[in-house]
Amino acid sequence: MDVKTYWQHFKAHHPEITTDHYDAYAFGSSDATADLLAHLVKIGQKTATTSGVELYEADEPFPFVGEYNIILDAQGNPVCVTQTKVTETVPFDQVSQEHAYHEGEDDRTLSTWRKEHRAFFTREYQVAEQTFNDQIPCFCEVFEVVR
């Protein structure tokens, strides 16, 4: 099912939702990661994510509390709908153990989160011709699955 049809089907089962605004995206930088993270979201293990603030395009809006998101697998198929519950911007080295746990990946510890995200952000910042450091501003988002 394509994203637009998935959204219309979702709204038909949730008449209280009156907005047509949603974002649709896959997590990660590889097909395997996108599929794994979509699965973790769907089963409720992954309820948070982190982005590099400086990696957003100038005209790209930040997620906002109340926003709906359609999580996609590696092939662009909708897996589930989430709703953003909390957003905050903090330096990389101040991301909390709680947030790392809610990201739902690996052993869910802060030390593993920092190791994996440091590697991920280093690559992403290089692609953007920027330099990663432990004080980069991170956009932390908490969400819940609503379908």
UniProtKB/TrEMBL annotation:
Q: Which Pfam families match?
A: ASCH
> What positions does the domain ASCH occupy?
25-147
Checking SUPFAM superfamilies in the record gives: PUA domain-like
State the protein's name: ASCH domain-containing protein
Source organism of the structure: Levilactobacillus brevis (strain ATCC 367 / BCRC 12310 / CIP 105137 / JCM 1170 / LMG 11437 / NCIMB 947 / NCTC 947)
